[in-house]
């Protein structure tokens, strides 16, 4: 009986973790899409659909790349204002 309880608990925790991970993944993708939609000049001229695809395929990494290229001081326009 003890091993059955363990298996049920493990399965429940696994599915709870999977649901949270999928929800977070979709939330990141949706956030990147709507933020990219607001940009007047996206980095490298990449469309919001491509940024959405990148963040969908690489959830955390895609969001980090998106932020670095569009909102950090690494953005090209932040270099031009100092020259």
Give a short overview:
It contains four helices and no strands. The protein has 83 residues and is mainly alpha-helical. It has one domain.
Class from secondary-structure proportions: mainly alpha
The proportion of strand residues reads: under 5%
What is the count of DSSP helices, taking H or I runs of 4+ residues? 4
Number of domains: 1
Shape: rod-shaped
Mean pLDDT: 85
For the sheet with most strands, the description reads: none
Q: What string, H for helix and E for strand, traces the elements in order? A: HHHH
- Based on CA atoms alone, the radius of gyration comes out at 19 Å
Key words describing this protein structure:
83 residues; mainly alpha; 4 helices; Cardiolipin synthase N-terminal domain-containing protein; transmembrane helix; membrane; transmembrane
Q: Explain this structure to me?
A:
Keywords: Membrane, Transmembrane, Transmembrane helix. The chain crosses the membrane at residues 6-28, 49-69. This is Cardiolipin synthase N-terminal domain-containing protein. The protein is mostly helical and 83 residues long. It has one domain (25-83). Helix content is 77%, strand content 0%. The longest helix is centred in the N-terminal third of the chain and has 37 residues, at 2-38. It is rod-shaped. The model has no long low-confidence stretch (mean pLDDT 85).
Helices and strands, with pairings:
Elements: H1 2-38, H2 48-57, H3 59-70, H4 76-80
Helix pairs in contact: 1-2, 1-3, 2-3
Transmembrane segments: 6-28, 49-69
Protein name: Cardiolipin synthase N-terminal domain-containing protein
Keywords: Membrane, Transmembrane, Transmembrane helix
